[in-house]
Structure formats: structure tokens, C-alpha cells
Amino acid sequence: MYRSTTRPILAAERALLDARVRHPIPKVSWASTAAWVALWSVGGVACMATLGRIDSGELGGVLAWSVRALLVIPALTCLFAVTALIASHISWARRYRQYRQEFLPCCAALLAGAQVEAKTVTATAVCAIAELTDEGNGYLFDIGGGELLFLAGERYRPIDDTMPWPSTEFDIVRAAADGSWIGVFSRGDVLEPSHTVALAECPEALLWAEEEERIEGAIEVGRVRFGGAAAVAAAQA
User: Fold this and answer.
1) CA dist list (Å): 94 to 66, 99, 154, 189, 227
2) Were both Cys, which of 65, 101, 114, 166 would link to 109 (CB 3.0–4.6 Å)?
């Protein structure tokens, strides 16, 4: 089932939003990130410099080739660590910026009595999307009536980590006034994915979906049956 309603914010939702305001997302510092990047970079440069000396013939013999083999792994580890640190910083900085610029102002209005638009979802089955498991949530929920609900992105997870996810029942909540994102409030039971499907097996419309999307189809034993390649309704409509 999928139902959209406009209503006042619920007491449980109000309490969770108030807790998010009182315990904000930590702000990441470029100074701290730069220090760790510099540390790993020094290690990587040292490994590469030693490898360069071996290649130039300054260091030779069987021992040198053994050292070369041992240095390749830490050099690659340093490179991976630097890349991961920068990517993590960018991700957390974006989340903090969204929290300050979008979430907090919207919360203030809601806690003052503004209305919310809640999309209530009741699902009987769910499957995971293989290519999206490392990029946040990527799921297809069977919502009955020959329809599936596609959810993808970091925002599609419960506002409270103690909530079950994926689950049999949840609300996707936005501010009614301007559609600002609030969060996912899960209150159902844990719904374990029945299996994993490749994004390439899904309708082409889902390849470019940025938010939730309703499409024709159903989850069957061991597979997903799609009723058509085109989305039948954008969930935000």
C-alpha cells in the first residue's frame, strides 16, 4: 500500500526531530583531514621513493627485489587511504551543509506547528539493488496492487538508527509547505530482502531516478517481475 496525506507532525516524529536538533551532525575540519592525508601521503611517498631507488639500480640484489614486493602493498594502501579520507570528508561536509541549510530551518517550522506531507508505505516483500548497496539504500519494495516502490540514496534510511530497516511499514516525510526533506520514520517489522537484483535488470526509468519512484511489477519467488519499462507514477506527484 502507498498513501500520501497531509497532516500535523506526530508526537513520536516531533521527539525524534527535537533529538536531531539537540544532537547535531558533527562538523568535519579540513585541518584534521589534511593532517591525516599528509601522514598517509608521507608513507606513500617514502614507499615510492624506495621503489624508485630499486628501479634506478641504487639498490640491487635479491634482497632489493624482496623489499620491492613488500613495498607495493603499503604504497597502494597509502594511496587508498588518501582517496578514502578525501571522499569521506566531502561526503560528511555535504551532509553537514544540508543539515545546517535545509534540515534545521525546516525542523524549526515543523516544531512550531507546520504541516507535513507523509507518504505511508506498507510492503510485503523487498529486494536489494546490487549496484546501490555501497551508495546508501537501494531497494525495491512490493507495495501491492501490482506496483513496486523504488528507493535509492543515502537519505532513504530511518532518521533513527534503532528503527528497523528495511521494514514492513514506514513513512517518508517532507514539509508540506515546500517539500523540504525531513526523513524516513519506520514503525513496522524488519523486512529481510528476499534476494538481490542487478540495476541493469530494472526498467530504464530507474537508472536516472533521483528520488522514490513507483513502477509496475511484483516481487516473486527468486525474481522480480516488471510490468513495464516506464514508471507509472512519480512518487512525489
Assistant:
1) 44, 9, 12, 31, 37
2) 114
